Amino acid sequence: MTTPRTEHLVLTGVLTAGEAAATVAGILAVQRKDGAIPWFRGHHLDPWDHVEAAMALDSAGEHQAAERAYLWLARHQLADGSWYAAYADGDPLDVTDRGRETNFVAYIAVGVWHHYLSTGDDTFLDRMWPVVYAAVEFVLRLQQAGGQIGWRRDDDGTPTEDALLTGSSSVHHALRCALAIAEQREEPQPDWELAVGALRHAIRQHPERFLDKDRYSMDWYYPVLGGALTDAEAKGRIEEGWDRFVVPGLGVRCVVPNPWVTGGESAELALALWAMGESDRALEVLQSIRHLRDPETGLYWTGYVFDDDAVWPRELTSWTAGSLLLAVAALGGHEATCAVFGGEHLPRGWTRTAALESRVRVVRGCSRPRGGATYRHSPAPLEVGPPDRRERARGTARPAPDYPQPPTPGRPVSMAAQPAGHGVADEQIDDRGEPVAGDHPRPRLVEGEQVTRPACQPVGHVVDELHQVVGPVGVQQIHQNPQSENDGHDVRDHRDDRPRGVGMRAISRGHAFRLAPELRFKPRTSGTGTEVQRRVNSSRHASGPRSR
């Protein structure tokens, strides 16, 4: 064990340097030799709280211990990219909940990006990229037509379509971190960006798409902590629920009207307040839960029932200590923690038009924007061989899956337009999700125009050619040809048949496409790698962070 770096973890009325070191040591004492961090020894491990504790270790300079935690996840990731919801004492062979919860699975992206920003370790990022990639793909297979994320897949493969606001807000944060990782590696994932935009729009504008868990404080503050609500929206939401959930001098209720405050919810609210720029209130909240600290272990009791003056449950959990350390680290200016939870420099994803739901009907091979134009792909699908980056990302040499063969040099790929109207939408959503009036002209594409992709040309050039040839017309997936399961793509996956916006990754898989108005891809090089400029005006998709 190294000596923790705790100077930025000293906070008046919350932690002294000695207390911060004791809290870090308390988490390390819970961690198993194989890297697993259960709630406490003898209790279960869940992937979300495991990552939260690992981030706390990174915030204190315990990078080797944090890396062991992430490598535990890498070693025990399931074939579909997920993890089970609970492992007894962190034992990978003793599974106590065989469900797979989407926010649990997605959260590794937050932890991996936090560790990379804490250490600058490119080798670690290369090692974890295929793990993050597979996890995100698992999560997006449960994204619903309205953008929200189904919260769980059962062990028999049955997906749960119901969505939780807290869980989806956490996934929103995780997807933005996953996009940051992709950009750092120069592996753009435009379809992930579309997924983030759809999810954020659902969180901001469509509360009816989520199960009603309004009694839980996490549903109150998590849209802010997850970065979906910012500025005036964030402030309005926090003010609206403040008197309902905050008990002055004691902390934050977990559930109303129960007289029970909890350390984890209190620390996370403080982190959300810090992200809003309200550091003074964040400090007050953290100071209010000092009564939950156990001086012997440096850890924190899960909660306190104030009507009975009783600690309950009598559990000193690693994730409660972890959430407090992360909030203190943000207030203390720890760069990685500030970058991950401040969110200013995380990719925001694309947004989409309100006409997305009301005016576009998608069938195999054809899209019919009502009152707009019909675009039909030519009979032959766009055939593109798997790019080298897929094997490089996985870091292993695999037998080539049964992809369609690349076209011969100069072989054309045709896309034809059938004009059928003037405009395609009378409403847009800007980059903050606000409606903007407007009408979009018919795409400048005439029948017979072609996009030619020479064999073995990098995928990014295909996207650039599409941009140059069809102007404001972009590419959208309507059907995926079944892929080999060796490629990590389950041919039984219903997501294959759900129309979603796609970009370079989907083009690389040999999918069939249709044209969709106003989806632009134009790669350009920036200081941090390849960044995709984007604008989306028309496209179409089809519990909380911890279980207590």
From TrEMBL:
Residues 525-541 have a biased composition (Polar residues). It comes from the Bacteria. Residues 401-410 have a biased composition (Pro residues). Residues 367-448, 479-548 are annotated as: Disordered. SUPFAM superfamilies: Six-hairpin glycosidases. InterPro entries: 6-hairpin_glycosidase_sf, 6hp_glycosidase-like_sf. This is Prenyltransferase.
